[in-house]
Design a protein that fits this description.
This protein has 2 domains: 146 residues, Aspartate Aminotransferase, domain 1 (Alpha-Beta Complex); 237 residues, Aspartate Aminotransferase, domain 2, CATH 3.40.640. The protein contains 15 helices and 15 strands. It has a 7-stranded mixed sheet, with helices on both faces. A 4-stranded mixed sheet has the order 1-2-3-13. The protein has a 4-stranded antiparallel sheet with strand order 11-12-15-14, with helices on one face. Helix 4 crosses helix 12. The two termini are 28 Å apart. The mean pLDDT is 97.
């Protein structure tokens, strides 16, 4: 370990809340799908800030847009109009198929807004969410997040929630009723282990909400912005929600989130019902506008689908007994093992690849969408060696 690294660790341990389990490296810079630590070691980044850096690290177009905007106007609050926010809304609303947008700073804030809107629009307080779901850690978002480890220390939470079996139609039918304000679903579960539901499940959720007057919320915080080989994961099934949440890759690495809704739902939110001081600031809107242009110009939807298929086929070709399932869409891929995968993560890091383990036994691959075939080949080779060593 370098003196620089140890100095960072010592200060972190002295001054920062110790609520993160950090891997034993400090990242100092990044470019494309690669990052370097303080000792100069290079890593292919298959975590990408947890599906944030879809464009890769420090994309020149985003760097230029942020630098230019920072010299002009950074923040004024939502007491005033800015052209950057209006332009971004004009681009995102039709692209998502929604009618109105509320800007905030993170995925969990977007979910909080969605839950409040669902209550306001329906006058109901009960929610239905899925087992293995993850929607955030603030009190409202936490109440629809399934993992007991996250929920239990903070109970009682703020609303009644029924958790149903993910991708199980009958489980949904047993829970959605006239008291349900909304059903909230990740169209592909991320933290829950890259679980892909059937189209029938998502269509059934839509039908049940229509029948009972409940709203359907799609949490696309992790799946949005080309990650799954579509602009948004809802496009795989063709199901349209009443409300959707976005964040992560929205602004090229800067913190930004959004809640969007159909017109008849959005208009139920009145002046003063909700707000965000920093939401949609000129700086992050400039970054998001630049990011959208890069996604279009570099055809990252198509690239995500192509490279995701290349990654999945390469992983399947390993034919290792420890691998029980490979699943995902685009460059959102999970490899389930019949063992805990922390040792594989350690092996990969030691050999120049950053991965993370979710749901204890699932290796999650969410690299920048700009990753090359040569880099994917190297990642697969490192993971294969790690699994074989674990055996």
């Amino acid at each position: 370990m370098t003196d620089i690294y140890q100095n960072i660790v010592d200060r972190d341990r002295k001054y920062v809340f110790q609520n993160y389990t950090r891997q034993p490296i400090a990242i100092s810079r990044g470019a494309g799908a690669v990052v370097w630590d303080t000792g100069g070691k290079e890593y292919i980044d298959c975590v990408a800030g947890i599906a944030v850096n879809n464009l890769g690290h420090c994309h020149p177009a985003v760097v230029e847009a942020v630098s230019r905007q920072a010299a002009e106007l950074i923040h004024v609050s939502n007491l005033y109009y800015t052209h950057q926010q209006a332009e971004l809304a004009e681009q995102l609303v039709p692209r998502t198929g929604m009618d109105r947008i509320f800007f905030c700073n993170s995925g969990t804030e977007a979910v909080e807004g969605a839950l409040k809107l669902a209550r306001r629009a329906t006058g109901r307080t009960d929610f239905v969410a899925a087992e293995h779901s993850f929607h955030g850690r603030t009190m409202g978002a936490l109440s629809v997040t399934h993992k007991l480890q996250y929920r239990e220390p903070f109970q009682p939470l703020v609303q009644k929630v029924d958790f149903v079996v993910y991708s199980d139609v009958e489980s949904l039918k047993d829970s959605v009723n006239q008291d349900t304000a909304a059903v909230i679903i990740e169209p592909i579960q991320g933290e829950g282990g890259i679980r892909v539901p059937s189209d029938e499940y998502l269509h059934s959720a839509r039908d049940l909400c229509d029948d009972t007057g409940a709203l359907l919320i799609f949490d696309e915080v992790q799946t949005g912005f080309c990650r799954t080989g579509k602009w948004f994961a809802k496009e795989h099934s063709g199901v349209e929600p009443d409300i959707m949440t976005l964040a992560k890759a929205m602004a090229g690495g800067l913190p930004m989130g959004a809640m969007l809704a159909k017109e008849d739902t959005a208009t139920r939110m009145q002046k003063g019902d909700h707000a965000a001081t920093f939401g949609g600031s000129p700086l992050v809107c400039a970054a998001a506008l630049a990011s959208l242009k890069v996604m279009e110009d570099e055809k990252l939807v198509e690239r995500s689908a192509l490279m995701g298929d290349y990654l999945i086929q390469g992983l399947k070709a390993l034919e290792l007994d420890r691998i029980t399932e490979i699943r995902g869409k685009g460059l959102m891929v999970g490899v389930e093992l019949n063992m805990k995968c922390n040792s594989i993560v350690d092996h990969a890091r030691n050999n120049g690849v950053l991965l993370n383990c979710t749901s204890e036994s699932v290796l999650r691959f969410v690299p920048p969408l700009t990753i090359t075939k040569e880099q994917v080949d190297r990642v697969i080779a490192v993971v294969a060696r790690g699994i074989k060593e674990a055996e």
